[in-house]
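User: quick one, sequence for these tokens?
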């Protein structure tokens, strides 16, 4: 079926996301109910757990780090290079294919390119901008639900609740963020370097199997 063939990568990734999110939801529910029992509190159902700070804080904490990684990667690869990597532009390539899109406008070009002016300029950086906005949005949601989860735990332990602003300045919140951010940057660096020397036949993220190590770009 043409629809599946043309969109198979997106469909499979969305399905994998849904399955793993379901696993996270169910396993987190079991863990949280056990914590409630230990504190002498009544257990909650799966739906209630799905809108709890405990679950949503962890969910947005992970999404936040992914969008940070992707937005940073898109922006950094626009002007930084890694010779030999399939993930980098060639540092010796002088011509910039995006230097002046106004001179190559076609009928099937995206409408912002055909519109021109500041609309085309904004569209030129729209991918990085969109990913950056998603990072900020998920960062804020992580902060809100992390504060909620922290206050629920504080109440169970007979401790005072704190405001979102106080939680944002806490070491606990930044530990949650940094523990994910560092792994995202490290894994991206590993892919950039390994793609210099290793190959995966058929993947656009890999150089051709017979390409020399010094050749840059996929």
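Assistant:
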């Amino acid at each position: 079926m043409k629809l599946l063939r043309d969109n198979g990568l997106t469909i499979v990734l969305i399905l994998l996301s849904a399955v793993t999110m379901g696993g996270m939801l169910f396993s987190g529910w079991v863990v949280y109910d056990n914590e409630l029992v230990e504190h002498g509190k009544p257990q909650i159902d799966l739906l209630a757990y799905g809108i709890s700070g405990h679950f949503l804080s962890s969910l947005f904490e992970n999404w936040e780090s992914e969008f940070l990684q992707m937005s940073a990667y898109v922006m950094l690869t626009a002007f930084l290079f890694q010779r030999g990597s399939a993930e980098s532009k060639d540092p010796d390539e002088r011509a910039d294919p995006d230097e002046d899109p106004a001179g190559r406008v076609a009928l099937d070009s995206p409408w912002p390119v055909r519109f021109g002016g500041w609309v085309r300029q904004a569209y030129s950086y729209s991918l990085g901008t969109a990913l950056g906005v998603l990072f900020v949005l998920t960062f804020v949601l992580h902060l809100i639900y992390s504060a909620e989860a922290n206050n629920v735990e504080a109440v169970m332990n007979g401790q005072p609740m704190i405001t979102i602003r106080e939680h944002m300045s806490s070491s606990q919140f930044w530990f949650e963020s940094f523990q994910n951010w560092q792994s995202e940057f490290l894994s991206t660096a590993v892919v950039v370097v390994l793609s210099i020397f290793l190959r995966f036949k058929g993947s656009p993220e890999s150089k051709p199997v017979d390409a020399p190590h010094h050749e840059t770009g996929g």
